[in-house]
Amino acid sequence: MIQRIQTVYLFFVFCLMLILVFFPFSSSWMALLVTGLVGALAMITVFLYKKRRLQLKISYLILFLLILLYAFYFIFEGQILSFSEFFRQTGYTFLIPLVSCVLVYLAIRGIKKDEKLIRSLDRLR
After folding, report:
1. Are 9 and 110 in contact (CB under 8 A)?
2. Phi and psi torsions of 3, nearest 5°
3. Residue 49 belongs to what domain range?
4. Number of domains observed in the structure of the chain
5. Dihedral of CA 32/37/38/42: which sign?
């Protein structure tokens, strides 16, 4: 389980979402709910290492939810604040979901690579 790089990426996503729960960049309860859901799904996906197709589907769901998290922020709070006020209020916590998106994308690539390797080995049998 640990030897697969996508496990490490998904664990980092879980850690980043845990940080984001304690230092939220949005005061919306929907953003907090989505943040918690993404963290929980990332941790669940780590333990689905034997079910790569399900792991891939959940990873795509995580990526969608992270994009939705940004949408919630811009819909509910982005209209109210000016650009400078926005960065003063959020600080670097606004970058956490973006870094998480990159990590989930890298995890998806790793899962696809493993699936391709398994399929190629099945052909050789």
Report:
1. yes
2. -70, -10
3. 5-124
4. 1
5. positive
Q: Which residue has the tokens 């969608």?
A: 64
Average pLDDT of 89-95? 78
Q: Contacts for 97-103 with beta carbons within 8 Å, 24 or more apart? A: 97/20, 97/66, 97/69, 97/70, 98/70, 99/16, 100/13, 100/16, 100/17, 100/38, 100/66, 101/63, 101/66, 101/67, 103/9, 103/10, 103/12, 103/13, 103/16
- How far is the C-alpha of 65 from the C-alpha of 57, rounded, in Å? 12
Q: pLDDT at position 78, please?
A: 63
Tell me the C-alpha distance between 50 and 95, whole Å: 31
Q: Is 15 exposed, middle or buried (CB count within 10 Å of its CB: 0-12, 13-18, 19+)?
A: middle
Instruction: Write the DSSP string, 11-77.
Output: HHHHHHHHHHHHS-S---HHHHHHHHHHHHHHHHHHT-TT-HHHHHHHHHHHHHHHHHHHHHHHHHT
Residue range 33-80, pLDDT digits in tens? 999 999 999 999 999 988 999 999 999 999 999 998 888 877 776 666
